[in-house]
Input
Amino acid sequence: MNLNDKYEKLKQIFIAEKKAAVAFSGGVDSSFLCRVAHDCLGDNAVAITIVSPMLPQSEINDAASLAIAVGIRHILVEDREIEPSVAENPPDRCYQCKKKEYGSIMQRAREEGIDTVFDGSNVDDLSDYRPGARALKELAVRSPLREAGLTKNEIRELSKMLCLPTWDKPAFACLASRIPYGETITEEKLSRVEKAEDFLRSLGFRQFRVRSHDNLARIEVATSERVKLFSTDIMDAISAELKSLGFIYVCAELSGYETGSLNRTLTAESLTK
Output
């Protein structure tokens, strides 16, 4: 199928459902999904965002702005508690977290008279370690972007065509992905990472992560942004700011940003499970 065929297939998936809720994080995929949902279903589509310590305020703000721009009704569900099974941070943490979050989204959708919940997983996600996908399957959450055969690049292309401001937004993952498996997740650690990443964003960096290894911050930036990172003034500013947030040591990943870099510690057995 060409891109237009995939786009038409996606729209037909929505039209066939008549009513749908979109699990909305404010990222590239779910933002595109919200636009298509509203185009196809109008007021019979809603966007639902879980407000938790896992999602930084900047992403919540982006989601709210995008919802207004698209015209879709936006529902915020507060969930400030970190479940013990998530806080323990096992290799399947994402499964534990998604099971709870999407359970809350489905419950809120049903209160709106909606039985179908869509998430923004795409074809490219099949090649990555994503234990959360098991939770979506168990809860019968549908992934229309994947069903339509759309890749990340194709979603960006369609988003640009629709003039969505998120078309070139850098990839993002929940804040818990900054903390190595086995290290306890706390709200304080997540807040510290959020503030550290806000600072890097204020310096003009676009694609980056601040990985939190206890009292050590390991910075990853896109390979094209390493030259900027290794400026003496920039390094001094970052070091001072992150240490003021409570990190004792601040270092950089020399090879640059890598999606899911903390998965390197997982064994083949963990990945299989």
Summary: The radius of gyration is 19 Å.
